[in-house]
Amino acid sequence: MTAVPKPPTADPYLPGHGDASWSATHYDLELTYDLVGNRLAGTATIRAVAVDDINRVVLDLAHLRVQKVAVNGRPPAKWAHHDHRLVLNLRSRIAAGEEFVITVRYSGKPRPVVLPHHGDAGWEELDDGVIVAGQPHGAPTWFPCNDRPSDKARYAISVTTAPGYAVVSNGELTSRVRRGSGETWRYWQAEPMATYLATVQVGRYRVVDLPPGEGPGGRVPIRAAYPVDATAGFEASFGRQREMMAYFTSVFGPYPFASYSVVVTDDELEIPLESQSLSTFGRNHLTGEWSEVRLVAHELAHQWFGNAVTLREWRDIWLHEGFACYSEWLWSDASGGRACGEHARHHHRRLAGLPQDLVLADPGPADMFDDRVYKRGALTLHALRRTVGDESFFRLLHTWVSRHSGGTVTTGDFEALAAEVCGRDLTPLFDAWLRRPSLPDLPA
């Protein structure tokens, strides 16, 4: 028996997802995808450990048809799949702390799930490929899972599809094998990952490795996949990707994963997509303008803030988006653009003219992706920096990542660490910025 892990938390922002009585430790996904018919066939092998004594296991799986289920190699006593929930009644009780293995074979035509407030997310068929946007509820559209951000696991992802298409997924590409009419791409994500950050991108892409750079950030392998005719646009928007990596490594600490990948789809996307060790952009993000370059910085920063260090509950979304937004301003300053303070003053004036009805530490499911969460979150960090000084502020960011990388966190965790690292009581500052809807003044 293994030590009982911290149980996945129930999340009021995304009810009806996940099962708090068990925790996944490893997903092995063997997928075959037919691009012509948009048909997915998969086998998921999930290694898990019981948090409580359990007689049943519940997984999330949307739209796809389950063909066979086993727990520890045997069929469960009974199982049912409805309303995007796969319920397995076990033959015998599994004790808290005991490891077990779930195997699910499934198939069908994957499509996004649509939820109030959050729109659609998940596996989406493109004109000539696939994009998977998992945040916050899209993972169950392509594999059975314990769908909570608090439940991180390691992943082996194998995708077989038609030759001529590149497959990009999380982590390291461990093999690429062509057999007959199919080509299989295998990826291994060694660092723990939340379900919504798992992804697969498929397209007719040119795949290149960016040249190495100087310093620790320069040694991080960076791979890019983009349409063959988009080379000039890619250089315009991503030409300084290596410099961004070096800069963020200097201010946030070592890059938290073995490599980084960037995918540019042949389609236009409303917003880029963050995934662990991977970011996805649309062709419309290749203008080279600051409005697009800032998004390149934003998504890279999420590798530290959101992917390595992940919220435990969706109410704490500012710990992702506020930090990534502030990283845009930091890069602007460091790269010769508008100073960080100028960005802060501009967005403070803008927020002052908007409704003052959002509480940053608990914005509610309808407003969790409201732009005010992003900008007020960034302003909170700027106010903190102005209050404690650069030395303490950047030491705090380093410590935040090094202490919590691979885990999940809350706003309270950040407040406690800020007080510890900065050596002072910061409760009045955090109360004003995080728990009251009115917009505070920026510190001088």
Automatic annotation (TrEMBL):
Residues 25-197 form the Aminopeptidase N-like N-terminal domain. Keywords: Hydrolase, Metal-binding, Metalloprotease, Protease, Zinc. This is Aminopeptidase N. Gene3D superfamilies: Neutral Protease Domain 2, tricorn interacting facor f3 domain. It catalyses: Release of an N-terminal amino acid, Xaa-|-Yaa- from a peptide, amide or arylamide. Xaa is preferably Ala, but may be most amino acids including Pro (slow action). When a terminal hydrophobic residue is followed by a prolyl residue, the two may be released as an intact Xaa-Pro dipeptide. SUPFAM superfamilies: Leukotriene A4 hydrolase N-terminal domain, Metalloproteases ('zincins'), catalytic domain. The keyword Manganese does not apply. Its EC number is 3.4.11.2. Its cofactor is Zn(2+). Residues 241-433 form the Peptidase M1 membrane alanine aminopeptidase domain. GO terms for molecular function: alanyl aminopeptidase activity; metallopeptidase activity; zinc ion binding. PANTHER family: AMINOPEPTIDASE N, PROTEASE M1 ZINC METALLOPROTEASE. The keyword Protease applies. It comes from the Bacteria. The lineage of its organism: Bacteria, Bacillati, Actinomycetota, Actinomycetes, Propionibacteriales. It comes from Nocardioides turkmenicus. GO terms for biological process: proteolysis. Belongs to the peptidase M1 family.
